[in-house]
């Protein structure tokens, strides 16, 4: 399964725990915050000024290992 920008942040981290470090490395260290429960990756990246495409690429690389 490929991670896409419209997937829920918390869904991705729950299914692929190794992605938590990728989120933190890209400046999204708030995985435990309430917003992470309902925001998708694109919304979270936008709120933090993060390049969503680079983030999604990095997430997919880590789950492909």
How would you classify the helix and strand content by structural class? mainly alpha
Tally of DSSP β-strands = 0
Give the overall average pLDDT: 90
Largest sheet at a glance? none
Gross morphology: globular
| Percent range for β-strand residues | under 5%
Distance between the termini: 13 Å
Total count of helical runs of at least 4 residues: 5
Helical proportion? Answer: 55-70%
Residue stretches low in confidence (pLDDT < 50, at least 5 long) are none
The H/E string reads HHHHH
**Rg estimate, integer Å:** 10 Å
Q: What's the structural blueprint in terms of helices and strands?
A:
Layout: H1 9-15, H2 19-25, H3 34-38, H4 41-47, H5 52-64
How is this structure best described in words?
The protein is mostly helical. 60% of the residues lie in helices and 0% in strands. The protein is built from 5 helices and no strands. The longest helix is centred in the last third of the chain and has 13 residues. The chain starts with 8 loop residues before the first helix and ends with a helix. The mean pLDDT is 90.
């Amino acid at each position: 399964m490929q991670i896409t920008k419209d997937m829920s942040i918390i869904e991705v981290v729950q299914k692929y725990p190794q992605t938590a470090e990728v989120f933190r490395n890209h400046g999204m260290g708030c995985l435990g915050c309430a917003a992470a429960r309902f925001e998708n990756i694109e919304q979270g990246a936008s709120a933090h000024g993060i390049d969503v495409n680079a983030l999604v690429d990095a997430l997919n690389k880590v789950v492909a290992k």
